[in-house]
Design a protein that fits this description.
This protein has 405 residues and is an alpha/beta fold. The protein has 2 domains: 142 residues, 2-Layer Sandwich (Nucleotidyltransferase, domain 5); 184 residues, 2-Layer Sandwich (Nucleotidyltransferase, domain 5), CATH 3.30.420.40. 38% of the residues lie in helices and 19% in strands. It is built from 15 helices and 14 strands. The longest helix is centred in the C-terminal third of the chain and has 25 residues. Bound molecules: adenosine-5'-diphosphate (ADP). Adenosine-5'-diphosphate binds next to helix 10 and helix 12.
């Protein structure tokens, strides 16, 4: 094995393959050193692009990438240009993010032919997500056959939700036949952030009750009692729950019948409408929260309504989880919006003094990549901002599987 000057042995290559994108990072799970980071986008379209950073050098290239295999081959070529031969870099694992683990998977798992088949079998549960994840697994395995591949599931953290929280009041026979239950997503982030929050508070993980708000383009909230999630806002798919960048979150299922019967829309049309053309974008035309907030500040009515609907839903779930948990030690904000949007945190937790939640305006205005408290010292519930790091969590979990296996 050749020692690489840029990527030191012991690192994990983390792969997150979306339908037309491929995110990757090489990170040491112990030292947390990030050796490389990149994103290939618009795979399969006329012009694709790769943003690649390795050893402090950043490159942006436009090229044609017909599929994920081509993207990964090109990424390996870029690494070679940086002087890094991935087959000899001493990688301990490739950690693949897989969105849906269905009922089969509740922990990170070494990829075997059986595991691969099982992920393919449950793909109908997440038709937009699992197939590209599988393509990523196959393509990387082909190019790096000697590095153990591990799959880390977005749903795993929520696998053991209490039955009353994971069960829909849907005909039980139908639900059983089609594996319909609330699975929850963003689990890697909720797990990482909740552990980090307990560490930051210097409290044992299993003694802290927390509400975690992962507010990115996709958004979800979880209620965690002593390290065990008891509820989360996403369900059978990532569509349920909070208002998101382009997704509806909770809506009356009757709307689906109405759109099919009266508007004559197909199931695919409705799927696209709910997933890609709704949420903040559907309400005001913008799904980037920075633009929404700028427009709110300028008095734009559509943006004000979108922001209002977003906050209304968020506060609805804060209330629900305060009651479900009974006692809450911490409320934790994370992801792009949660970490950066001062107004979302301020408005989301406004006027909740009677519930023991008091935000300190100055602390809330601080911008920092570090975990921090934004509540007052006498707030009964501590409110925190804890930056998420899904790649590091995937790397840690993947390395642990390889170590243990
Ligand atoms: P995802 O991983 O789901 O694509 P991220 O966690 O990266 O999303 O979050 C993306 C969102 O975070 C976008 O809506 C973006 O506008 C928002 N965001 C990023 N920085 C800021 C900021 N400074 N203020 C407000 N929103 C921000």
């Amino acid at each position: 094995m050749t020692d690489s000057p840029i990527v030191r042995p012991g690192a994990v290559l983390v792969i997150n393959a979306g339908s037309s994108s491929l995110k990757y990072q090489i990170v040491d799970p112990l030292t947390e050193d990030v050796y490389a980071d990149g994103l290939a986008e618009r795979i399969g379209e006329k012009t694709s692009s790769i943003k690649h950073e390795c050893g402090g050098r950043e490159q942006k290239i436009e090229l044609s990438l017909p599929d994920h295999r081509a993207a990964i081959a090109k990424v390996m070529e870029l690494f070679a240009g940086d002087g890094v031969n991935l087959t000899q870099a001493g990688l301990v694992a490739v950690g693949h993010r897989v969105v849906h683990g269905g009922r089969s998977f509740h922990e990170p798992t070494l990829v075997t032919p059986f595991v691969r088949e099982e992920i393919a079998r449950i793909a109908p549960l997440a038709p937009l997500h699992n197939p590209p994840n599988l393509v990523g697994i196959d393509a990387v395995t082909e190019l790096l056959p000697d590095v153990p591949a591990v799959v880390v599931f977005d749903t795993a953290f929520f696998h053991d939700l209490p039955a009353e929280s994971s069960t829909y009041a849907l005909n039980a026979d139908v639900a059983k036949e089609y594996a319909i239950r609330r699975y929850g997503f963003h689990g890697t982030s909720h797990a990482y952030v909740s552990r980090r929050a307990a560490e930051f508070l210097n409290r044992p993980y299993d003694e802290v009750n927390q509400i975690v708000l992962h507010l990115g383009n996709g958004a979800s909230m979880s209620a965690i009692r002593g390290g065990r999630p008891i509820d989360t806002t996403m369900g059978m798919t990532p569509l349920e729950g909070l208002v998101m960048g382009t997704r509806t979150g909770d809506i009356d299922p009757g709307i689906t019948f109405q759109l099919a019967r009266v508007a004559g829309m197909s199931i695919d049309d409705i799927d696209r409408l709910y997933n890609k053309e709704s949420g903040l974008k559907g309400l005001c035309g913008d799904n980037d929260f920075r633009s929404v907030l700028e427009r709110v500040d300028a008095g734009d009515e559509a943006a004000e309504l979108a922001f209002g609907v977003y906050l209304h839903r968020l506060r609805h779930y804060i209330g629900a989880y305060l009651i479900e948990l009974g006692h809450v030690d911490a409320i934790v904000f994370t992801a792009g919006v949660g970490e950066n949007a001062v107004a979302v945190r301020a408005e989301g937790l406004k006027d909740l003094e009677n519930f023991g939640i008091v935000i300190d305006a100055d602390r809330n205005a601080v911008r920092s990549p570090e975990p921090r408290v934004i509540s007052t010292d006498d707030s009964a519930i501590t409110v925190l901002v804890v930056p998420t790091n899904e790649e590091l969590e995937i790397a840690r979990q993947s390395a642990a599987v390889v170590d243990g296996g």
